[in-house]
Design a protein that fits this description.
The complex is a heterodimer.
Chain A: H1 2-8, H2 47-70, H3 76-100, H4 119-144, H5 153-159, H6 163-186, H7 191-195, H8 197-223, H9 228-256, H10 269-289, H11 294-324, H12 326-332
Helix pairs in contact in A: 2-3, 2-6, 2-8, 2-11, 3-4, 3-8, 4-5, 4-6, 6-8, 8-9, 8-11, 9-10, 10-11
Chain B: E1 3-8, H1 17-25, E2 52-59, H2 71-76, E3 79-81, E4 87-89, E5 93-100, H3 108-112, E6 118-120, E7 126-128, H4 138-142, E8 149-150, E9 157-158, H5 164-168, H6 174-178, E10 184-188, H7 189-205, E11 212-214, E12 230-234, H8 254-283
Parallel strand pairs in B: 1-12
Antiparallel strand pairs in B: 1-10, 2-5, 3-4, 6-7, 8-9, 11-12
The chains are: A mainly alpha, B alpha+beta.
Chain lengths: 345, 284
């Protein structure tokens, strides 16, 4: 500080260098407007990253149970764990989303129109359909488990739900719920998110699957439920899912390049590198690759779940830091970074 | 008929009448009394409760004075020669710019809005219907100009309406009405475009070759969003006024992102099928 002053204002009498204001000193190199961000940071609070995580778990668990059943897995404990996991997440998700609204009492306006190009509009519809269908599947499961009582009207009605068909119908919507959260972030003007437009959805979807697998695995291991070979399949699926997620995340970081800086900032760096990259991907992969034991599987599942949450959290908060940085927006809003629309450029 | 603004920053005197007129007409609350020390700009930026904002840019780069300078002589006598006989104090140029919602031709906020609260009204202005908005906040991140914010105690998002109510009654917006130098002009977009081009040609003829129009796809960028209904005549780089050089339409990427997600969904489905199916076969 003092050095700059000495340079610009020599103390010798009569030698003056004029400058109206220190902020507009001619020696200043940056070209922003008093450091005020040119775009606004998002207004979302803690509910949103938590929903991104929970919604992903529910979607992932549904995808896993539905596809596993398609290829012939009939392990009841496994199906039960997956369906109830999805049910719990789908009960919490709308609550979180409505809580975050500025006018929660108007939440139903989300289903006022269908807008193909608005990920939030399509996501609201997908979440509603997926929540409804997976709720029916879970109800059928509850009837089978005797939770609705025996031989009463509700139980018979729930028992009549074609759960297999409902699961299949819900599958594309489940995928959508897992992926759209990433696309929703990517199709904004926030440099860190927009830069990674294509891979944001795939990254979130792969994280949805890995956290969904881990949630089922955690429940099964906690209760000592499930057939041995189902657990073995889960382990295998988790390992491959972690590899896919790591590759997508690595590609995302390369794509984000300098605009991904917030992820490695003082505030988010420890969470992202320690919690997601090392704690949520590398460590669980190592745990799942080695000797199999209940405690190792439990630890791996917990680590993947924490890592998945931290991925959502650091991505959402990283966008906040990115929006606060005027230079990030200015350097990103350049001709060479525009999406493919040459005719209008 | 599409209406819009033309803000000619070369004749703006920084009086902030537009800010005041906007606040009064639209009954917007005060934002506090913070003194920023950033020139005369204590408003800082556009927000849900500030729909006009005058930026103050002190530009001392015009001429650097070093060595033995007599400040009195400088103030009284020393003039810098400018083209066309114009004279300016060698201490620098002080520019002002009254910022406002750009009313994009392809508005990212409107495309993002999941409730359909943000519409294009009959004047082709981007308008938020306050009775529909549920305050999801998605438009805040979508706007490439940082215009929209969610107002904390209200919960909904607000921005310039281009005085929809006044236009309905055949009046021009409050800011344009209040502007004493006609720096803010209101009219049909096509007329404004012609007027802007004429003004820039005039400025170029006077030697101010750095004047340009910001907000039309052909000149001055903003092609990614098809141009703006609020145009500006600027003399400096867009970044100096806190404007992005080439804003883009984020929703252009929805298609690519969807395809990539569908491919990933297929791969992940195959992973699960393989992990469970292969072992099933192995067990049999």
């Amino acid at each position: 500080m003092t050095d700059v002053r000495e340079e610009t204002r020599p103390s010798r009498n009569g030698q003056v260098e004029t400058s109206h204001h220190p902020e507009t000193d001619p020696q200043r190199k940056d070209n922003d407007y008093y450091g005020i961000p040119p775009i606004k940071e998002h207004t979302w609070t803690w509910e949103i990253p938590l929903y991104f995580w929970l919604g992903g778990i529910g979607a992932g668990a549904h995808v896993v149970t539905t596809i596993a059943r398609l290829v012939g897995v009939e392990d009841q404990a496994f199906l039960r764990a997956g369906r109830y996991t999805t049910l719990v997440t789908m009960l919490l998700s709308p609550v979180l989303l409505i809580m975050d609204l500025g006018r929660p009492e108007r939440f139903y306006n989300m289903l006022r129109i269908v807008k193909w190009r608005s990920p939030m509009s399509m996501g609201s519809w997908a979440l509603s359909v997926f929540g409804g269908l997976s709720g029916l599947v879970a109800t059928a499961q509850a009837a089978e488990d005797g939770l609705l009582g025996r031989d009463n009207f509700a139980a018979r009605l729930a028992g009549a739900i074609p759960d297999r068909l409902m699961s299949l119908l819900a599958l594309p919507f489940g995928y959508f719920v897992g992926a759209y959260t990433g696309v929703l972030l990517a199709t904004t003007s926030v440099p860190m998110w927009a830069r990674n437009a294509v891979l944001m959805g795939p990254t979130f979807l792969s994280s949805a699957l890995s956290t969904g697998l881990s949630a089922i695995s955690l429940v099964l291991h906690l209760g000592d439920w499930g057939e041995r070979r189902t657990l073995e399949s889960l382990r295998k699926a988790e390992r491959i899912a972690l590899v896919v997620e790591s590759s997508l995340l690595a590609a995302s970081l390369i794509r984000m390049s300098r605009w991904g800086k917030p992820l490695f900032s003082k505030k988010l760096g420890p969470l992202f590198v320690g919690g997601t990259l090392i704690g949520g991907l590398l460590a669980p992969f190592a745990l799942l690759s080695g000797r199999e034991s209940r405690s190792r599987s439990l630890l791996a599942s917990v680590l993947v779940l924490i890592g998945g949450y931290l991925l959502r959290y650091t991505m959402v908060e990283g966008g906040r830091l990115s929006a606060r940085d005027p230079q990030a927006t200015f350097t990103f809003a350049r001709k060479e970074n525009l999406p493919l629309r040459e005719e209008n450029v | 008929m599409a209406t819009g603004f033309l803000t000619d920053t070369t004749v703006c005197i920084g009086c902030k009448a537009c800010e005041v007129a906007c606040k009064q007409w639209n009954q917007l609350p005060a934002d506090g009394y913070e003194l920023t020390g950033d020139s005369y700009d204590n408003t800082k930026q556009l927000s849900g409760t500030t729909w006009r904002h005058v930026a103050f840019i002190e530009n001392p780069r015009k001429r650097r004075l070093t060595g033995d300078v007599d400040l009195v002589a400088l103030a009284e006598d020393v003039k810098e020669q400018l083209p066309g006989g114009a004279e300016i104090d060698a201490l620098g140029r002080w520019s002002f710019m009254s910022d406002v919602c750009k009313h994009c031709v392809e508005a990212p906020c409107q495309q993002a809005c999941p409730t359909g609260a943000i519409i294009r009204n009959e004047f082709d202005n981007v308008y938020i219907q306050p009775d529909v908005c549920n305050g999801c906040g998605y438009c805040v991140s979508a706007c490439p100009y940082g215009v929209i914010t969610r107002v904390p105690h209200d919960g909904r998002a607000f921005k310039c309406t281009l005085c929809y109510d006044r236009q309905k009654d055949g009046l021009e917006p409050a800011c344009a009405k209040a502007c004493p130098t006609d720096s803010i002009q209101f009219g049909e977009v096509e007329d404004l475009k012609v007027r802007a081009e004429e003004r820039v040609a005039e400025l170029h003829a006077k030697g101010y070759t750095n004047a340009y129009i910001y907000g039309t796809p052909e000149v001055g960028g903003t092609g990614g969003i098809g141009g703006n209904h609020s145009k500006f005549i600027l003399m400096d780089e867009p970044e100096t006024y806190n404007l992005p050089r080439h804003p883009f339409l984020p929703q252009d990427k929805v298609h690519q992102a969807s395809v990539a997600s569908i491919v990933t969904a297929g791969v992940l489905g195959a992973v699960v099928a393989f992990a469970f199916g292969a072992l099933e076969r192995g067990a049999r």
